[in-house]
């Protein structure tokens, strides 16, 4: 499995299938039209099996901090979930954000994924909340990079 910077077109199918299966096939996904967004893909035998998006964005709990990057759109195909692909994508996202001057990486993590993010060095901050788009329970999480 190789982790590399990718484009929106090559990662959209995995992001849509895992994260937004009810969205119309032709609708753009988060980051598709954001020039600052960086998409990373886990590629195996020429097929994208996982992806994540990072973008420079102030951390809502500490907007005065420079170098904050948001991680979002973490998606691994169901057949490969639990095999370490997500952790490899998080490590690559940390490296990429750091390379671009990042000092903090944050995300809105689904409550069901909090354990995954904790294993990858993130801590929760604030109460559980319902995400505006999905109405799925989330926690805000962050880590220094």
Summarize the structure.
Helices cover 23% and strands 37% of the residues. With 145 residues, it is an alpha+beta fold.
What is the average per-residue confidence, as pLDDT, rounded to a whole number?
Answer: 90
Strand arrangement across the biggest beta sheet: 1-2-3-4-5-7-6
User: Count the helices. How many?
Assistant: 3
Low-pLDDT segments, ≥5 res: none
Alpha-beta content class: alpha+beta
State the separation between the terminal residues, measured CA to CA.
24 Å
Specify the helix fraction band: 10-25%
Strand content: 35-45%
The largest pleated sheet is described as: 7 strands, mixed
Task: Tell me what you see in this structure.
The structure is a single chain. This protein has 145 residues and is α+β, with helices and mostly antiparallel strands. The protein has 3 helices and 7 strands; from the N terminus they run βαβββαβαββ. Strands 1-2-3-4-5-7-6 form a 7-stranded mixed sheet, with helices on both faces. The protein is globular and about 40 Å long. The model has no long low-confidence stretch (mean pLDDT 90).
Strand and helix map with partners:
Blueprint: E1 2-6, H1 8-19, E2 38-44, E3 47-56, E4 68-76, H2 85-99, E5 104-110, H3 114-119, E6 123-130, E7 137-144
Parallel strand pairs: 4-5
Antiparallel strand pairs: 1-2, 2-3, 3-4, 5-7, 6-7
């Amino acid at each position: 499995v190789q982790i590399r910077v990718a484009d929106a077109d090559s990662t959209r199918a995995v992001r849509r299938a895992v994260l937004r299966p009810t969205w119309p096939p032709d609708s753009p996904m988060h980051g598709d039209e954001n020039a600052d967004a960086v998409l990373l893909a886990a590629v195996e035998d020429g097929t994208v099996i996982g992806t994540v998006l990072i973008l420079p964005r102030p951390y809502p709990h500490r907007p005065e901090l420079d170098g904050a990057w948001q991680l979002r759109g973490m998606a691994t195909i169901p057949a490969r979930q639990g095999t370490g692909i997500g952790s490899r994508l998080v490590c690559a996202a940390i490296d990429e954000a750091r390379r671009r001057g990042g000092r903090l990486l944050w995300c809105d993590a689904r409550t069901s994924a909090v354990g995954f993010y904790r294993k990858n060095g993130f801590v929760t901050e604030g109460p559980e909340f319902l995400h505006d788009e999905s109405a799925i329970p989330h926690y805000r999480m962050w880590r220094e990079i």
